[in-house]
Amino acid sequence: MRLKAYEGRPAAVGGVGKDPVNEPMIRHWCEAMGDTDPAYEGPDAVAPPTMLQAWTMGGLSGHTGRSAAYDELLGLLDTAGYTSVVATDCEQEYLRPLRPGDEITFDSVIESVSERKTTKLGTGYFVTTRTDVRVGGGEPAGTHRFRILKYAPARRRPKSPRARRPRPVVNRDNAGFWEGVGRRRLLIQRCGDCGTLRFPWLPGCGACGSPEWDTVEASGEGSVYSYVVMHHPRFEAFDPPYAVGLIELAEGVRIVSNVVGVPYDKVRIGLPVRLEFARFDNDGDDGDEGGEDGQDGELVLPVFRVQEGGGN
Amino acid sequence: MRTGEELPPLEIPITRTLIVAGAIASRDYQDVHHDAELARQKGSPDIFMNILTTNGLVGRYITDHFGPGAVLRKVAIRLGAPNYPGDTMVLTGAVETVEDGTATVRVVGENGIGRHVSGTVTVTLPVREAADARDARDARDARDARDARDARDARDARDARDVADAGDAGGAS
Asked: What is the ipTM of this complex?
């Protein structure tokens, strides 16, 4: 693209601040920033220097004085698919304080357009502009260098806004468990020889080694034996922070599962919980091509709800 | 105040309200700073803080620290990991240079997902701070002068000894 040709061309000519420097906008800024510097209030108030660019902003009704060259450059990038924009750098120099009543004018030049760069956000071009802000008849008040990245967002998400939950790996050893979950039953393995209960499902008994087994259905009663709160890393299918519980069932075995019904930071060891089954990804647009589990895109998982009166 | 001095950290909870209030106070109506749905359509997981708010917070961090009378001269920042709602940004700073009542401070803001901002602020110090800095410089200059004098004295003494040694050597020949 002929992007370099835009370097040195104006980005805004004869821009005029929509409002003179004024106390209400200063106060709103200070409230937002939590800035209580006494220099920004009272009869001798000056504007916070970092407001420099705010006085040149177009607001809801758009920019004043923006040049054809700048619109052309951004339009060219839009057309080429670099439709997103993010500000990456802001360098301001303050030459004189701005006071209520000061009228702002500004001119802006396209300083540079980078080569095509690949960033974490996507591929695009850095566009740097420099704005000279003046006050009154033309006295320099400050300069403002601003760099944006115009980029094509990296495609990393499927068509649904949130990725699907990972599917269970079902094999010969655990198929009975998942078949039970499909019928809304939580099945615990029981050794056919010594009767020891075991969970998760395994091919042999950990106590006596016997491969014989049958199942008992969990009553659903249990309590939080331990837990962790997941903050990081983020996976699109999940919404951190969330609590992952190790639930001790009334039958004595333990299962890793979600604790639901209270905020993540109210989960405590010992909380009584009760089994329920939750459905995930049931929006029907997963486009699952009939995986081996034969599910039609919906996932059912056992979760544990904190009992009334718990989680206080 | 001296080069290398570290500023106490400032924790800023990144609330949805702060993001929206900062965007509007800076007259920035880009939808990614107030509309979560449109932000998601553009590939962002949520709304995020605009650069002008970050700039304002960095400026506030510096003037809060140096107190009334401190005047910002330059603020230059670069953004990295976005500030999303629910996160906390911790600003830290270290004095890089102090000269004639003006300091440059390196500022970094880290959030839960990485480095949100790094930059340099040039600030004219309030009179008291500037006086302290001058005192520190004067003390340093005085120390340097003393060191130089000591070095000179040591050299003179060594030269005198060398001369004496040379005399001894001469006497033996």
From this structure: 0.78
